[in-house]
């Protein structure tokens, strides 16, 4: 079962337009939720015509995004939005796995070093630097592959975005009704 994080905002000190917007958002109910790695979840409410950004995931540190879907979204815009969602999910998965591996290996390193020293004193920065260098050296190829793939995906997104811009500029974007 998921724990739901709830945020309550006092509207008394807000200007009237912000207060009205928050009340309208609360009245519409949640339309998107996301699960954190720790099992808790949060709800993002779509308000207006903008993408909504949630709090960072506790493991990956990636902020989830609820993409706005316009009523008359064209097939090209839909493809772009779906690609953005796929890239965001790919990024989320990579950093969740990477950071989980990092934390596990760091904890194992700390336990082994404390066992060698026969005490539970925290390790110094110099002692921890051995682990950090070793982890970076061992995962260098993973980071190179990630960066290459990240660049490819971002260039693909920029090309899709440019295509939409050009189609809009010439009035050739076919909107669905």
Q: What would a concise description of this structure say?
A:
The chain folds into two domains: 1-49, no CATH class; 69-169.
Task: Give the secondary structure arrangement, pairings included.
Elements lengths: L15 H13 L3 E4 L5 E4 L7 E2 L11 E2 L8 H43 L7 H14 L1 H30 L8
Antiparallel strand pairs: 1-2, 3-4
Number of strands: 4
Query: What portion of residues is helical?
Result: 55-70%
Low-confidence stretches: 1-14, 21-33
Biggest β-sheet description: 2 strands, antiparallel
Please report the distance between the alpha carbons of the first and last residues. Answer: 39 Å
Q: For the CA atoms, what is the radius of gyration?
A: 22 Å
% residues in beta strands: 5-15%
Q: Any idea what the shape is?
A: elongated
> Widest sheet: strand order?
1-2
Q: What is the mean predicted local confidence, pLDDT? A: 81
Order of helical and strand elements:
HEEEEHHH
How many helices in DSSP terms?
A: 4
What's the structural domain tally?
Answer: 2
SS-derived structural category: mainly alpha
Question: What does this protein look like?
Answer:
The chain has 177 residues and is mostly helical. It has two domains: 49 residues, no CATH class; 101 residues. Helices cover 56% and strands 7% of the residues. The chain contains four helices and four strands. The strands form two sheets. It has a two-stranded antiparallel ribbon. The protein has a two-stranded antiparallel sheet with strand order 3-4. Strand 1 and strand 2 form a beta hairpin. The radius of gyration is 22 Å and the shape is elongated. The N terminus is likely disordered.
């Amino acid at each position: 079962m998921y724990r739901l994080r709830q945020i309550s905002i006092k509207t008394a000190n807000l200007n009237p337009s912000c207060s009205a917007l928050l009340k309208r958002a609360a009245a519409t109910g949640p339309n998107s939720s996301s699960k954190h790695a720790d099992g808790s979840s949060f709800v993002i409410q779509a308000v207006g015509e903008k993408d909504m950004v949630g709090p960072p995931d506790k493991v990956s540190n990636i902020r989830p995004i609820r993409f706005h879907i316009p009523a008359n979204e064209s097939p090209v815009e839909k493809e772009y939005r779906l690609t953005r969602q796929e890239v965001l999910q790919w990024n989320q998965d990579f950093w969740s796995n990477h950071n989980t591996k990092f934390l596990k290996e760091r904890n194992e390193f700390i336990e082994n070093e404390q066992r060698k020293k026969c005490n539970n004193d925290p390790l110094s920065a110099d002692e921890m630097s051995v682990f950090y260098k070793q982890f970076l050296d061992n995962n260098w190829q993973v980071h190179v592959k990630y960066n290459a793939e990240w660049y490819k995906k971002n260039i693909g997104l920029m090309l899709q975005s440019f295509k939409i811009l050009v189609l809009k500029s010439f009035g050739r974007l076919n909107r669905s009704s």
